[in-house]
Amino acid sequence: MEYRTVYGRADGEFTMKKSRFIAEVIPVSSGEEAMECLEEIRKRYWDARHHCWAYVTGRNPVSERLSDDGEPAGTAGKPILEVIRGYGVTDVFVVVTRYFGGTLLGTGGLVRAYTSAAREAFENAKIITKIYGVRVKIKTDYTGLGKIQHLLAQRGTALLDTLYTDSVEIYALIQSGEKSAVEKELMEATGGRAVMEKLDECWFADTPDGLKIYPKEPLV
């Protein structure tokens, strides 16, 4: 199981007829966290006319909410939400703050402006894939080490640590759905000399800052 989300905050800006649209993409874990971020942005841009937003959180099913914050219905929140959906991400909150430039943009202009601002922020965002997996310890003797390392490398398995004593202990991350297959391959490759122990479950992802492990969270 896996899902796409954003890694850290990102922003973008779009201008149309002197109206400024400042967008920010923020990773969140709940609607409550999204509303806390909204209050922070309202305080930062206290003199702006509108703070329109949308968020998508959770999985199977997702939770979605949006707000036009005084703009004509359907011209702000919905376009922002459509951009989030288009990137196929969840646990994401997007706010677009508008400074009015003195010229009415019409419904079509507003839709284009809010869409463009949200897209600009996403263009600057780092999107990662979080994978649900298990942390395992693989214990073997030195005879089977080379075969295990080769097998894990072929699978692209994330290695966390290796301890060398009278035996070898390899700590690794494996996608939850692959655990049984990996264990079977290890046993066959080493003639039963490798023992795999499940340590815990977690989410993990390759990020711009390297491999990150996240606490276990609900699968929904």
TrEMBL record:
Q: Which family does it belong to?
A: Belongs to the IMPACT family.
Q: Which Pfam families match?
A: DUF1949 (PF09186), Impact_N (PF01205)
* InterPro entries to which the protein is assigned, alphabetical: EFG_III/V, Impact, Impact_N, Impact_N_sf, Impact_YigZ-like, Ribosomal_Su5_D2-typ_SF, UPF0029_Impact_C, UPF0029_Impact_CS
Fetch the PROSITE patterns from UniProt. Answer: UPF0029
The entry's protein name is: YigZ family protein
UniProt domain Impact N-terminal: residue ranges: 17-121
Q: What positions does the domain UPF0029 occupy? A: 139-193
Q: Which domain of life is it from?
A: Bacteria
